[in-house]
Design a protein that fits this description.
Elements: H1 3-13, H2 16-39, E1 42-43, H3 53-67, H4 71-83, H5 114-127, H6 134-148, E2 157-158, H7 181-190, H8 195-204, E3 210-212, H9 217-221, H10 229-238, E4 248-250, H11 262-268, H12 275-278, H13 284-292, H14 304-315, H15 346-359, H16 366-380, H17 413-422, H18 427-433, H19 438-441, H20 451-460, H21 484-487
Antiparallel strand pairs: 1-2, 3-4
Helix pairs in contact: 3-5, 3-6, 4-6, 5-6, 5-15, 8-14
This protein binds protoporphyrin IX containing FE.
């Protein structure tokens, strides 16, 4: 570089104008970094890792709402109940089998839509296994459900990871229909949501959907004076004293299927259906907020659709887990277990279950589906057909400790035999069901890898190499359901 050019560059670098520009660029960079770390989530988080993620969720939601228009409200409510416990981390989806899962909390009574989330997850696992979190599916499904109900569309920031904990006790403090206005306000404030968010998200979201009479009867029995007297009679006829608490009635009277601000008018006129909606108009500040959406003067009228979507995005960011926190569940109803490393196929079982539930809800156990799917997988691999006896019930307990007894690739032959025996299985079963243990059990030659084969394996799995790289268990016969594995060299440590 000539001296002249060098001098030119150094002069320009120390030019005050250049320093100002450089400073500005540095600040801009850090501002962006701060903005992203504060917001945590990103728009289009899956644009590179799973470009079709959002369209897959949308298709599943569209189909579900077409089959049952009530599903739109169900999916919107699901996100609220997910986000208010442990943050928006899909914890409400977990079903370990006992009654102590979060979803069984009293405050979650009637929450549904799990089948739609499971179905979307199955599809996503087919296209981008292990990439899209269940928590994000819940958020996207709520957005798409709102759009299906002709509500406003909004971009959903994504990148949530799935939680590892789901406990009924952690859902004790959900906002309740009987809560006072002050309690409701403080429960929302605890989640970083303002009074305006409370109005928009609770009453606003109730512009679609229904409630069970269970939540209405107590206020009718108590002769709640805030209910318009004519409307009181209507409600009483739908939800009579001592009547069926499961009968469902619209939350937004006369406008149940339209995503609009009619519910605010109803609340103002004493036609709110549940107490937690009506109680909002008893508070001066909340009253002003509700009235701002009912202004007749269009120029000063608050924009319900725009404000509602902002509040949804805010709610969708409560306590999110990002980066290395949590996990990406393979199945939305269960956390990924440490001891099931490498075990897959959950998405297929989830998909089969969704399909079976459509035809015979609550009839076929997941345990039977696994048994039948294993048989069908064997047939697909050109193995022989066998009838599968069915009638298994699904378990109620699922604990990581109980999986510690699984046979391990490093177990000695004695331990393997004992572990199979504990399950009522013979040595022959061990040979047939596992892999290459046959030679050792029969007292024949131990199944040492030959020198040649050792080299082949070492080449595939070099010391310090990528441990997730997969190689066939049945060398030379990997796609054939045959007994080659018994004849050939041992490819596993046992
Ligand atoms: C003050 C807080 C809230 C309370 C006390 C409350 C209470 C309720 C109750 C009692 C029901 C009837 C449930 C049933 O019978 O199945 C209901 C339904 C519903 N809630 Fe809320 N809610 C609140 C906030 C929210 C929020 C924040 C959202 C969403 C952003 C929401 C969305 C819905 C929807 C869409 C339904 C109708 C569900 C259906 O049709 O199955 N709610 N809510």
């Amino acid at each position: 570089m000539s001296r002249r050019i060098r001098e030119d560059i150094s002069i320009r670098l120390f030019d005050p104008k250049m320093i100002t520009i450089a400073l500005f660029l540095v600040l801009l960079y850090f501002h962006d970094q701060l903005r992203y770390s504060a917001a945590q989530l990103q728009f289009g988080f899956y644009s590179e890792t799973c470009p079709s993620a959002e369209s897959i969720v949308r298709d599943v939601v569209q189909q579900a709402v077409t089959n049952d228009p009530g599903k739109a409200a169900v999916l919107l409510r699901l996100q609220f109940h997910d986000c208010f416990v442990e943050g928006c981390d899909g914890s409400i989806l977990i079903k370990h089998g006992g009654n102590d899962d979060e979803r069984f909390a009293a405050g979650n009574a009637g929450v549904a839509g799990f089948d739609v989330i499971d179905e979307a997850k199955s599809e996503l696992e087919r296209f981008c296994p292990g990439v899209v979190s269940c928590a994000d599916i819940v958020a996207l499904a709520a957005r798409d459900a709102i759009a299906e109900a002709k509500g406003p569309f909004y971009e959903v920031p994504t990148g949530r990871r799935d939680g590892l904990i789901a406990n009924v006790d952690h859902a004790k403090n959900l906002p309740d229909v009987q809560d006072s206005i002050n309690t409701l306000k403080s429960k929302f404030r605890e989640k970083g949501l303002s009074d305006q968010d409370l109005v928009l998200l609770s009453a606003g979201a109730h512009t679609i959907g229904t409630t069970a009479c269970f939540f209405v009867i107590p206020r009718l029995d108590a002769q709640d004076p805030t209910i318009n007297s004519e409307f009181f009679q209507i409600l009483r006829s739908k939800c009579p004293q001592g009547g069926d608490v499961n009968v469902r009635i619209p939350l937004d009277w006369d406008s149940q299927f339209v995503f609009d601000n009619q519910i605010f008018q109803n609340i103002k006129n004493g036609r709110g259906v549940i107490l937690s909606d009506s109680v909002l108009y008893q508070d001066n500040n909340m009253k002003k907020i509700i009235d701002s959406y009912l202004e007749t003067n269009q120029s000063s009228k608050a924009n319900f659709a725009a404000d509602f979507t902002k509040a949804m995005i805010k709610m969708g960011a409560i306590g999110v887990k990002i980066g290395a926190e949590g996990e990406i569940r393979r199945l939305c109803s269960a956390t990924n277990y440490r001891f099931l490393a490498g075990v897959g196929g959950f998405n297929i079982i989830g998909k089969v279950k969704s399909a079976v539930e459509r035809f015979c809800p609550g009839v076929v156990s997941c345990a039977d589906i696994i048994a039948i799917a294993a048989r069908d997988a064997i047939i697909t691999a050109k193995g022989s057909f066998y009838e599968v006896p069915t009638g298994r019930n699904d378990g109620r307990i699922s604990n990581v400790k109980n999986a510690e007894k699984l046979p391990d690739a490093q177990d000695s032959i004695a331990t393997l035999k004992a572990k199979f025996r504990e399950q009522g299985l013979t040595n022959r079963d061990l040979v047939l069901l596992s892999r290459c243990a046959y030679h050792r059990i029969d007292g024949m030659l131990l199944c040492h890898a030959t020198v040649d084969f050792f080299q082949v394996l070492r080449l595939k799995c070099p010391r310090g190499g990528y441990v997730c790289f997969k190689i066939p268990l049945d060398w030379d016969g990997k796609f054939q359901f045959d007994n080659q594995v018994l004849r050939s060299k041992c490819t596993t440590p046992h």
